[in-house]
Amino acid sequence: MKNRIFSGIQPSGDIHIGNYIGAIRNWAQMMDDYECIFCIVDYHAMAGKYDPKILQQRIMEAATVNIACGLDPDRCAFFVQSHVIEHTELTWMFNCVTPIGELQRMTQFKDKSKHQNQNINVGLLDYPVLMAADILIYKAEIVPVGEDQIQHIELCREIARKFNATFGETFPEPQAHLGKHKRIMGLDGKNKMSKSLNNYIGVLDTDDEIWKKLKSAFTDENRIKKTDPGNPDICNIYSLHDALSEADTISEVNQDCRKGRIGCVDCKKKLHQSLSFHLTPIRDKADFLFNNPDKVQEILKQGAMKSKKIAEETMREVRIKTGFR
Ligand code: TYM
Fold first, then answer.
1. What's the pLDDT tens digit per position in 153-166?
2. Structural domain boundaries enclosing 268
3. Same domain, 168 and 105
4. Ligand 1, closest atom to CA 181?
5. 263 Cβ below 6 A of ligand 1
6. 270 is catalytic
7. Residue 231: inside a domain, yes or no?
8. Does residue 179 sit in the same domain as residue 33?
9. CATH classification of the domain holding 262
10. Are residues 156 and 244 in the same domain?
């Protein structure tokens, strides 16, 4: 029996290379060794600013890009969260064992409350409980995510412990799985790459759009002249090379930068080539799927059917243990 993994992504607009490197690429690499369940978490998007008129379009875009990035429906279940309604039922059960103080101290809750200070809704606070339900309804043991989700996974473990202690051993305590590149910085070099900060390269951006973004991207600010020696350890462009370029390009750029033999523009040109190499097949596959949305819908339908079976079984057990029949 393979260990089971679960992970999710929001349908909130452009999927960027931070999502790709920090999460989706790792998911695709884990499909042979684990039983994999991946999810477009549409209910989570509702806690932030979202437009109901384009929600379905966003879900289809997110699904298409994830499949284009390598999720293979024959080797994983891939579906939309709201199609397996049991996630919300389990959330309610978990709400009743989660101390409110734990939710109030979540870094993302604090950050997002600042960002959307006119809309600090209960969903925003409860977000990590819904996440715990997403994971535990499948009794997943491993959760591959970027670094920003670690605190939520720790809370998920705590919720599992609390539930087990109250109602009897039911859930495993899942572990976060981080890849080598767990936090991709944005093009501003100051913040994590994210859609809301508009500091990102989209997986579906064209080569021209990417070059425009790269041209103004932040590098090692101590390098003024091309011949100044640079420090790749603190350069954001180098960290993207490290995540995406071939091994010989990475070591060449590293050495040439330190000796002032390559300037930032040429270094960015090489990164541009690596990005084009990675993203061209993804864009092509996404184009094909955008023209064949029925294929994506069928994948999501099959994924929901597979997942729902497991979710229903868990909920049957949970209802009995919590005294509901
Ligand atoms: P979301 O949609 O913000 O991001 C999806 C995944 O991408 C990772 N990620 C990054 N990794 C490295 N560098 C970055 N700059 C970067 N930006 C995003 C995230 O860590 C994440 O793994 N709450 C989650 C979705 C979710 C979930 C779950 C995840 C809902 N339920 C259950 C795991 C398990 C979120 O908003 O991810």
1. 999 999 999 999 99
2. 207-287
3. yes
4. 12
5. no
6. no
7. yes
8. yes
9. 1.10.240.10
10. no
Task: Grade residue 47 by pLDDT with cuts at 50, 70 and 90.
Answer: very high
pLDDT of residue 223: 84
Distance of CA 201 to the CA centre of its chain: 15
Q: Which of 8, 21, 68 is nearest to 185 (CA)?
A: 21
| 131 touches ligand 1 (CB under 6 Å) | yes
Q: Does the residue 29 lie in any domain?
A: yes
Q: Report H helices in 96-220.
A: 100-104, 107-115, 122-136, 150-167, 207-215
154: buried, middle or exposed (CB in 10 Å: 19+, 13-18, 0-12)?
Answer: middle
Q: Are residues 259 and 118 in the same domain?
A: no
Do 24 and 117 share a domain, yes or no?
Answer: yes
183 in contact with ligand 1, CB cutoff 6 A: yes
Residues 255 and 113 in one domain: no
Separation between Cα atoms, residue 65 and residue 279, nearest integer Å: 11
The total of other beta-carbon atoms located within 10 Å of residue 101's CB is 7
Residue 18 lies in a domain: yes
> How many structural domains comprise the chain?
2
- Report the nearest-CA residue for atom 22 of ligand 1: 145
Confidence of residue 105 (pLDDT cuts 50, 70, 90): very high
Q: State in Å, rounded, how far the first CA of the chain is from the last one.
A: 31
- Evaluate whether residue 198 is within a structural domain: no
How far CA 239 is from CA of 24, 183, 198, in Å, comes to 18, 10, 19
Amino acid at 194: S
Residue type, 134: D
* 53 in the same domain as 143: yes
CA of 265 relative to ligand 1 center, distance in Å: 31
Same domain, yes or no: 102 and 223: no
Output the pLDDT for position 92.
98
321 in catalytic set:
no
Which range is least confidently modeled, 30-34, 154-158, 225-229, 249-253? Answer: 225-229
Q: Does any ligand 1 atom lie closer than 6 A to the CB of residue 73?
A: no
Question: Residue 27: enclosing H or E segment and its boundaries?
Answer: helix 25-30
